[in-house]
């Protein structure tokens, strides 16, 4: 029957129809107007229950628990027999527990239902009868034409039919689907005819395979209607999956193929197994022990009762004649009566209290400000509160690397060009050997075209090509699939209309500058900054390397980001500069007459620009240089003295705000508050230029800084969208160096040459924009490990640029690059040792004949319906050959904040850390060393390229000997994916047993499946390791779900890992607090909660057991039914719940400073048998003291009432209950470490709760179970009773208090006399190591 209900109510999940192997879908949906369109076919359902199935399914789940099922049976028995107590004593607590649990689970399901309704009711635009209509998402049917706009989610799986992109492309992100935040490109099926909207439903029929869970495969075709009857193949590049989001494409139209629960997203949202905390194993063991004890007690009392009936009662003539017959019915009555009487040994409210404690504890974690990320407004998220205490039991932590230990923020760091290493310095390159700084102005000039035109051999051309840094970065700026966010370039250009006139004085932060802004700015600045060379001359001296006088030709025009046609400002030459001594004194009081002594006849007439006559104003002879970090900034402007026109002033000072004076320096006193710096030779501010350098150096430096800021702001405005963070980092690095990729227009790539640094030693080259026609993109795949683009330059030449993993690019290089390959490979190894991610870059010229052959072969491959992918890759490989190697790049994935401190602390806490990554060994090793995963002095053992079981066993045996004989020496294991595959398949147990002995394990080049297999392998160990997995991407989901505790980081790779995890937060460093603080607290709290529940019930029922020996084992109850009902619900529930959510044996600061304290609770030490037995002994002692103190109290003098009467039997049971409530609550107070006024208040409230309920109950003459009418009031009025309670409580708790104080005073470790499992294991390991 149970299996029948289980099959009836179990959740089906997402199932796939298997009626037909292939689905046929009419584009536009069914066209039969008479038929009503079905509804709800795209409905998503994640709820667990329905209104009909909630009650039976929830009850079935709850009665699987031992305690609930036990009390159900006891309630039924109490209704069937003549129960010694009221059946309500079992029924009411059971109903309460079941109702609370059902309400909690029902509420959670209602929240899921509301979430589903939000998705199902979201509006979707469809095309019906040639017109747009808006319907609910749940009403979409297969074949429906769906319109999806930019930045909107796809409502179901669609076949792309139309896109606003002129080339039929659609760009999407799939962060909600697979966790990847990079941009992906989809295409409208090739050769699909373009028809008007009203005719789209006549396109034809889509035939596709039945839906599967594979996100990266789709096989189908479109059978076009009409006379041609053509068939167009469909693949994954034509399908938008539910959960993806349209980006950088204004609008697309698709045909729905898979809807609702059969979409690929829902098929991958399968139900995972329920995770249970390891503490539940100990709870079940304790329950079994108590259940066995219960059966033993009931059996013992039954036989004692039969003994008394046979041999004792017949001798007691006043009891009457004994019965001669004994039936089975009488046996059941006697035996089950005892069973009903002692059923409270099993704590029914234990489970519901644990549930409440876990839920409230999860709120505390979500409210913890230390686990809150302010930048993203992201708190900690607890998806599975059942595992709170499991956070304090972790033995082995499995971690991803990229995005988890690192930020997944790529920064270009180094590169290798023509065998020379360069360091990236934001806007310059630094040669590693010479330390020379190179900017784009100093990059070697390309000689390829010159050589190729003059008939120089190809080998010479190749050598000149390799030596060209410009070509290298040109390759990086065009060999990619980066998209510029639509409208961002226009947004930057639109800034001109909103700008104020350049003559106006601006304050506040600089604006975002556009290309047109910069052009206008530069033009106006050049007009304002003319020198009146007829009156004065710039006395600044050029820093010529040879120290000779030279005429400097420069320009104030800012050519930054200015296209050729926008360059309309003439360059003007500076006058001949007379060199002076470096010790030439600068004077702020030099007057106009001083300038007349200088030779001014060498003025260049080109100084006049655009017909603007020179003014009589002049620049100051010596511009005062002021650092941006000056103690007091110069004012931006002040009023010039009367009769003087304003001096040189730029509309904006980008690099150093207020760096220029706004009027000539005269003998007059400057305004108050303006600080002038003396440009002496000892000034600290002479670091930027030689002391004798004046205006040209200052202007160049400020102009360069201005341009760098403009480039940075312009890059930010462009908003690059890349398929990988590495690709985006490379494009941004090129832009910072001066090659700004500004997007593609009709496959025309535009790269603006933007020198970020002015160089007044040579004339400025005219700024320009390079364009390349992108002909083909050979996409990156996990098999190819590279991507290529084929472009045509402005000269009509065709080039192929390739970048990818060096192991895949180097074999494609020409033989003439062999020497360069060797040098570059050595540099790549150096980069990898620094923990950098590397790519190799190559290119070559393609002849027209070769290109035409490539087109033919590619067309044949794309038209093939079988082995299309294989044929395409063969075609790609043919043209990606004989490449000229340009160099390699090195990108850094920055470490997470405080990752080293977190890992070191977790290792000190006894947690072994395994890093499972897909990176190469060298990169992963250096990341592991830098972040503290592998200790610097640890022995490193490598297992690489292992091919069979024999080789693996040799490695493992050698490693085992290293660990055994290197006693105390830390050892780290590094293994690659190929060797790990052999270990998992052929030597799993041997690998597991040796690997767990290592301090750290680093597994490289792993697939997501291998990650989960490693976790599963460790879980299968006999040592019962508690595992945790942490990751941030979709490739970590299987690992997270496999571990005992799954932890997700809400990182840049999407939120799927966070959604599938049990706990999630924003930063890896928060893991330290989650485990060391919250894990420690929850473990201590749950242990106290469980042990206390068994303790208080044993005290409660122990008195009942002793009472039977004084009633001829009559199965009579010493307690009233009210006490049995309320004992676990009111009298003792509140204090333990409060302390179970607030107990703190150590402060949070101490736990963070002392990770070793984490070891005190691992392996559920406080739930081991010694602790349980000690609580049981205390419970037995307390029950004996309470019962016999009361027994003696009543036996020797039962005249206890104030009016001199003897007490009734009801007073005896009431006094026992009163004492039990006081003692068990004070015992909890004694065991608690963190005392607060609220906690003490809950104890007082519980005791007062007993007093109040009993007073109310005993003044009502119900005569329901036992007659305690006015009994408790009489006890309250008796002074001896109060004295007796005080004495009894002291007698019970003095031993507890004494033992506790001795442990603290003498620092005695509890239960060290018990061997225990862990001690036995340690003794065994010590013996084996000594013996070996």
TrEMBL record:
Catalytic reaction annotation: ATP + H2O + phospholipidSide 1 = ADP + phosphate + phospholipidSide 2
Residues of the P-type ATPase C-terminal domain: 1058-1306
Chain's gene name: Dmel\CG4301
Ranges where the P-type ATPase N-terminal domain occurs: 37-90
Name of the molecule in the record: Phospholipid-transporting ATPase
EC category name: translocase
Entry keyword annotation includes Nucleotide-binding: yes
Species of the source: Drosophila melanogaster (Fruit fly)
NCBIfam families from the UniProt entry: ATPase-Plipid, ATPase_P-type
């Amino acid at each position: 029957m149970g299996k029948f209900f289980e099959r009836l109510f179990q959740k089906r999940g997402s199932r796939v129809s298997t009626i037909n192997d292939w689905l046929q879908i009419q584009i536009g949906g069914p066209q039969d107007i008479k038929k009503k369109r079905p509804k709800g076919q795209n409905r998503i359902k994640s709820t667990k229950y329905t209104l009909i199935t909630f009650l039976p399914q929830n009850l079935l789940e709850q009665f699987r628990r031992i305690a609930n099922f036990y009390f159900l049976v006891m309630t039924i028995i109490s209704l069937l027999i003549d129960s010694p107590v009221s059946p309500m004593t079992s029924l009411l607590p059971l109903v309460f527990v079941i109702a609370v649990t059902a309400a909690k689970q029902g509420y959670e399901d209602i929240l899921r239902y509301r979430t589903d309704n939000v998705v199902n009711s979201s509006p979707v635009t469809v095309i019906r009868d040639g017109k747009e209509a808006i319907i609910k998402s749940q009403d979409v049917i297969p074949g429906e034409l769906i319109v999806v706009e930019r930045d909107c989610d796809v409502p179901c799986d669609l076949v792309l039919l139309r896109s606003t992109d002129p080339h039929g492309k659609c760009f999407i992100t799939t962060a909600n689907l697979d966790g990847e935040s990079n941009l992906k490109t989809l295409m409208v099926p090739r050769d699909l005819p373009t028809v008007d909207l009203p005719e789209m439903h006549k396109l034809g029929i889509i035939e596709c395979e039945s839906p599967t869970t594979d996100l990266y495969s789709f096989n189908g075709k479109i059978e076009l209607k009409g006379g041609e009857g053509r068939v167009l193949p469909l693949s994954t590049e034509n399908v938008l999956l539910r959960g993806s989001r349209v980006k950088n494409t204004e609008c697309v139209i698709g045909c729905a193929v898979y809807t609702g629960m059969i979409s690929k997203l829902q098929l991958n949202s399968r139900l995972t197994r329920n995770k249970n905390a390891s503490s539940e194993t100990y709870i079940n063991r304790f329950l079994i022990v108590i259940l066995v004890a219960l059966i033993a007690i009931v059996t013992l009392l039954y036989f004692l009762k039969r003994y008394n009936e046979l041999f004792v009662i017949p001798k007691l003539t006043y009891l009457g004649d004994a019965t001669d017959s004994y039936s089975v019915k009488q046996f059941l009555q006697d035996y089950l009566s005892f069973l009903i009487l002692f059923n409270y040994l099993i704590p029914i409210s234990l489970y519901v209290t644990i549930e409440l404690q876990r839920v409230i504890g999860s709120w505390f974690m979500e409210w913890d400000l230390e686990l809150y990320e302010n930048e993203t407004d992201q708190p900690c998220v607890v998806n599975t509160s059942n595992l709170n205490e499991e956070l304090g039991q972790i033995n082995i932590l499995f971690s991803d690397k990229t995005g988890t230990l690192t930020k997944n923020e790529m920064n270009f760091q180094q590169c290798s060009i023509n065998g020379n290493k360069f360091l990236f310095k934001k806007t310059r390159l630094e040669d590693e050997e010479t330390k020379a700084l190179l900017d784009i102005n100093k990059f070697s000039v390309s000689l390829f075209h010159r050589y190729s035109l003059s008939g120089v051999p190809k080998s010479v051309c190749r050598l000149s090509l390799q030596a060209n840094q410009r070509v290298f970065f040109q390759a990086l700026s065009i060999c990619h699939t980066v998209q510029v966010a639509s409208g961002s370039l226009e947004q930057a250009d639109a800034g001109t209309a909103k700008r104020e006139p350049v003559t106006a004085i601006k304050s506040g932060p600089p604006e975002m500058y556009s290309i047109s802004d910069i052009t206008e700015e530069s033009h106006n600045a050049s007009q304002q900054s003319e020198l009146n060379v007829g009156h004065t001359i710039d006395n600044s001296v050029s820093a010529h390397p040879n120290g000779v006088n030279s005429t400097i030709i420069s320009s104030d025009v800012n050519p930054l980001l200015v296209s050729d046609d926008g360059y309309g400002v003439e360059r003007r030459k500076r006058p001949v500069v007379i060199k002076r001594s470096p010790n030439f004194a600068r004077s702020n009081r030099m007057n106009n007459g001083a300038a007349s002594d200088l030779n001014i006849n060498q003025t260049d007439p080109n100084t006049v620009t655009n017909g603007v006559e020179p003014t009589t104003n002049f620049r100051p002879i010596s511009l005062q240089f002021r650092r941006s970090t000056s103690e007091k900034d110069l004012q931006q402007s002040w009023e010039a003295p009367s009769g003087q026109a304003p001096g040189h002033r730029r509309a904006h000072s980008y690099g150093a705000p207020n760096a220029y004076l706004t009027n000539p320096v005269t003998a007059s006193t400057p305004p108050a508050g303006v600080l002038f710096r003396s440009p002496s030779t000892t000034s600290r501010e002479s670091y930027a230029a030689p002391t004798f350098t004046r205006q040209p150096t200052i202007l160049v430096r400020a102009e360069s800084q201005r341009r760098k800021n403009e480039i940075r702001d312009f890059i930010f405005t462009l908003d690059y969208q890349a398929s990988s963070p590495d690709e985006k980092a490379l494009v941004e690095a090129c832009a910072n160096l001066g090659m700004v990729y500004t997007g593609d227009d009709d496959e025309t790539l535009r790269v603006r040459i933007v020198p970020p640094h002015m160089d007044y030693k040579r004339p400025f080259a005219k700024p320009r924009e390079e364009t390349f026609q992108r002909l083909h993109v050979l996409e990156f795949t996990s098999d190819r490990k590279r991507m290529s683009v084929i472009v045509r330059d402005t000269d009509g030449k065709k080039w192929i640029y390739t970048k990818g993993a060096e192991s895949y690019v180097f074999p494609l290089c020409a033989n003439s690059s062999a020497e360069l390959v060797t040098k570059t490979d050595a540099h790549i190894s150096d980069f990898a040792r620094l923990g950098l991610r590397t790519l190799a870059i190559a290119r070559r010229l393609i002849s027209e004949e070769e290109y035409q052959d490539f087109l033919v072969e590619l067309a044949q491959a794309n038209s093939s319906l079988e082995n299309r992918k294989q044929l395409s890759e063969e075609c790609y490989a043919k043209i990606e050959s004989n490449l000229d190697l340009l160099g390699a790049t090195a990108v850094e994935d920055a470490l997470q904040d405080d990752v080293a401190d977190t890992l070191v602390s977790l290792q000190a806490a006894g947690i072994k850390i395994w890093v499972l990554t897909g990176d190469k060994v060298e990169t992963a090793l250096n990341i592991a060393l830098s972040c503290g995963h592998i200790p610097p002095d640890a022995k490193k053992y490598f297992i690489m390229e292992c091919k069979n079981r024999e080789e693996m066993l040799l490695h493992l045996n050698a490693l085992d000997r290293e660990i055994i004989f290197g006693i105390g020496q830390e050892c780290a294991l590094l293994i690659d994916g190929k060797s790990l595959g052999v270990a998992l398949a052929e030597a799993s147990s041997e690998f597991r047993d040796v690997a767990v002995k290592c301090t750290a394990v680093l597994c490289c080049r792993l697939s997501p499946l291998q990650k989960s297999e490693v976790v599963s392998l460790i879980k299968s160990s006999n040592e019962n390791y508690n595992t945790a997995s942490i990751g941030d991407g979709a490739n970590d989901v299987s690992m997270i779900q496999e571990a005992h505790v799954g932890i997700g980081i809400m990182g840049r790779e999407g939120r799927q890992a966070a959604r599938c995890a049990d706990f999630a937060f924003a930063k890896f460093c928060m893991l330290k607090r989650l485990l060391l603080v919250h894990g420690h607290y929850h473990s201590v709290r749950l242990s106290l909660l469980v042990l206390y529940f068994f303790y208080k019930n044993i005290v409660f029922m122990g008195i009942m057991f002793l009472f039977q020996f004084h009633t001829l084992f009559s199965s009579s109850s010493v307690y009233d039914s009210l006490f049995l009902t309320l004992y676990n619900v009111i009298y003792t529930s509140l204090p333990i719940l409060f302390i179970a959510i607030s107990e703190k044996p150590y402060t949070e600061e101490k736990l963070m400073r002392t990770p070793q304290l984490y070891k005190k609770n691992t392996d559920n030490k406080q739930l081991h048998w010694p602790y349980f037995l000690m609580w049981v002994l205390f419970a037995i002692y307390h029950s004996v003291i309470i019962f016999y103190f009361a027994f003696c109290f009543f036996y020797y003098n039962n005249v206890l009432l104030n009016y001199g009467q003897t007490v009734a039997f009801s007073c005896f049971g009431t006094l026992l209950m009163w004492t039990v409530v006081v003692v068990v609550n004070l015992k909890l107070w004694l065991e608690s470490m963190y005392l607060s006024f609220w906690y003490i208040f809950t104890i007082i409230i519980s005791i007062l709760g007993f007093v109040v309920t009993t007073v109310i109950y005993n003044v009502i003459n119900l005569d329901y179970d036992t007659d305690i009418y006015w009994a408790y009031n009489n006890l309250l009025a008796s002074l001896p009773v109060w004295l007796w309670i005080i004495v009894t409580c002291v007698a019970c708790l003095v031993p507890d208090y004494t033992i506790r104080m001795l442990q603290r005073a003498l620092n005695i470790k509890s239960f060290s006399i018990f061997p225990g499992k862990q001690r036995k294991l340690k003794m065994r390991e010590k013996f084996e190591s000594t013996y070996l």
